[in-house]
Specification:
With 466 residues, the protein is α+β, with helices and mostly antiparallel strands. It folds into three domains: 71-199, 2-Layer Sandwich (Beta-Lactamase); 238-298; 315-463, Histidine kinase-like ATPase, C-terminal domain (Heat Shock Protein 90, 2-Layer Sandwich), CATH 3.30.565. The chain has helices at 15-68, 74-88, 133-140, 161-165, 201-276, 283-311, 324-334, 356-372, 428-438; strands spanning 93-100, 105-113, 127-128, 145-147, 172-180, 183-192, 320-323, 341-345, 351-354, 379-387, 391-398, 442-448, 452-460. It has a six-stranded antiparallel beta sheet. Strands 8-10-11-13-12 form a five-stranded mixed beta sheet, with helices on one face. Strand 1 (93-100) and strand 2 form a beta hairpin. The longest helix is centred in the middle third of the chain and has 76 residues, at 201-276. The chain starts with 14 loop residues before the first helix and ends in a 6-residue tail after the last strand. This is histidine kinase. It comes from Mariniflexile fucanivorans. It catalyses: ATP + protein L-histidine = ADP + protein N-phospho-L-histidine. It is an enzyme of class 2 (transferase).
């Protein structure tokens, strides 16, 4: 059996060997320290990058909310976003100010405060710009104004910047200009009250994006408020016009009724007098009496025209399918047609939904107008229709005196006549245009002097069927 012995060998190091060993140990320590520093540096960089990415994501989330939300509650959205941004950048108070360069002041319009932080919005209204000249100069250049440590600001008097900030407990702050259409309109700001705070360049750039977002959303709100105000104004105006129109229509009916009664009396009395004295008076004596009757008839036409014009939009009768051939036949039966004038009507005219009285007024006035201004021995009036893709184009054509181009628009205005002779009221074509407009159609004319005139009007097929 073998006896094995374990020997412990102790080596004694010489001084030169001890020195070399220490040198080696220091090298290893330096390498480890370098690796540690590199790892720590990389971790810090990763944290900064990760923080910036989260900041960007937060901004995207806020932007999406602005886009998808109802801007009627914009104040709540802005306050929520101020809180989100404020908490992310570790500020204790975030706010929005508006510049008023007319009065040389600025005012706090929105504010968010962290827990236990006193609001300052009520104390920061109409603040003179002279108090903040330093950051105003920065904002005018489009730059942020950043103070990392308020206590390091110079003590520049009662109205200096430090004197404004320290009573609010502000240790650090940053303000970002709000610019709309290249014009400085205000700023957003972030105060740190509990401790000093720093903002990297990347964070400042993201805050600039946030400021632009606020400008856009507030501008959109302004536009919507302007549109809403215009709508309210429009509704009030329409209501006022409706009341005025109703009052005018009632006035027209009352006045017309009051005028018609004495006219009938005058016409009747003059007629009786002429009948009773037709053998005693000669033709010269009858001329002024006939002139009286002519003017009474003229006045009667005028009153009837006013009544018809004011009644167009007030008819309560339900629309029905109207046969245009039938209503034109009925209209021709009510018109006195001279022997030298021939009227032709196209067969198989379309039928449209509408009011019979209105359509009769259209054709009655156009046909009567064609008869009144016919100067030919063989007068001709043609009535017809051409079918278009989505509408019917009606026409009333004559071979009369024609109309100058200067009058093409004027003749549709109330009381406009080509000549003052005759008993025409000057309202007929105005009635026609008003009726066509009521049915969302259009009317126009073509004319040549001494050759004749054609009035066209177009009505949608949606009004009816053939």
């Amino acid at each position: 059996m073998l006896n094995l012995k374990v020997y412990e060998v102790k080596t004694k190091l010489t001084p030169s060997m001890q020195k070399e060993n220490l040198h080696t140990t220091n090298k290893i320590s330096e390498v480890n320290k370098s690796d540690y520093n590199q790892n720590t540096s990389q971790l810090e960089k990763d944290k900064i990058i990760e923080r910036h990415l989260r900041f960007q994501d937060l901004l995207i989330s806020i932007s999406t909310k602005y886009i998808n939300s109802d801007l009627s509650d914009i104040d709540k959205l802005i306050c929520e976003s101020l809180q989100q941004i404020g908490e992310f950048v570790l500020s204790d108070r975030s706010y929005i100010f508006s510049y008023d360069f007319t009065n040389n002041t600025c005012s706090n319009t929105y504010e968010w405060c962290a827990k236990d932080i006193e609001p300052e919005i009520d104390n920061l209204q109409n603040l003179p710009l002279d108090y903040i000249t330093q950051w105003l100069d920065a904002h005018k250049k489009g730059d942020a104004f950043y103070i990392e440590d308020v206590s390091l600001l110079p003590k520049d008097g009662e109205f200096g910047l430090r004197a404004v900030l320290e009573p609010q407990g502000i240790k650090s702050l940053i303000t970002i200009p709000k610019i709309k259409n290249n014009e400085l309109i205000g700023f957003i700001g972030f105060d740190s009250v509990k401790k000093l705070n720093t903002f990297s360049k990347n964070e400042q750039e993201i805050l600039f994006v946030y400021a632009n977002m606020l400008v856009n959303v507030l501008q959109k709100k302004e536009y919507e408020e302007q549109i809403k105000a215009q709508e309210i104004k429009k509704e009030a105006l329409l209501k006022s016009l409706s009341i005025q129109n109703e009052e005018l229509n009632e006035y027209a009916h009352v006045v017309s009724h009051d005028l018609k009664a004495p006219l009938i009396n005058i016409y009747t009395l003059v007629g009786w007098f002429m009948d009773d004295n037709k053998e005693a008076l000669d033709e010269n004596a009858f001329k002024p009496l006939k002139q009286v009757l002519f003017n009474v008839e003229k006045m009667d036409f005028l009153i009837k025209g006013i009544l018809d014009y004011s009644t167009i939009d007030k008819l309560d009768e339900v629309d029905k399918l109207v046969d245009f051939n039938l209503i034109i036949t009925e209209v021709l039966q009510t018109i006195l047609i001279p022997n030298h004038i021939k009227i032709t009507v196209q067969e198989n005219l379309p039928s449209l939904f509408g009011n019979t009285w209105r359509f009769k007024q259209v054709f009655q006035n156009l046909i009567q107008n064609a008869i009144n201004y016919c100067d030919k021995d063989n007068g001709l009036v043609e009535i017809g229709c051409v079918e278009k893709d989505s509408s019917y184009q009606f026409f009333v054509k004559d071979n009369g005196i024609g109309i100058k181009a200067d009058y093409f628009e004027k003749i549709f205005k109330v009381f406009t006549k080509l000549e003052s002779t005759g008993s025409s009221s000057g309202i007929g074509l105005s009635i026609v245009k008003k009726i066509i407009s009521h049915y969302k159609g259009s009317i126009w004319l073509e004319s040549e002097l001494d050759m004749g005139t054609t009035f066209y009007f177009k009505l949608s097929k949606d009004m009816g069927t053939n």
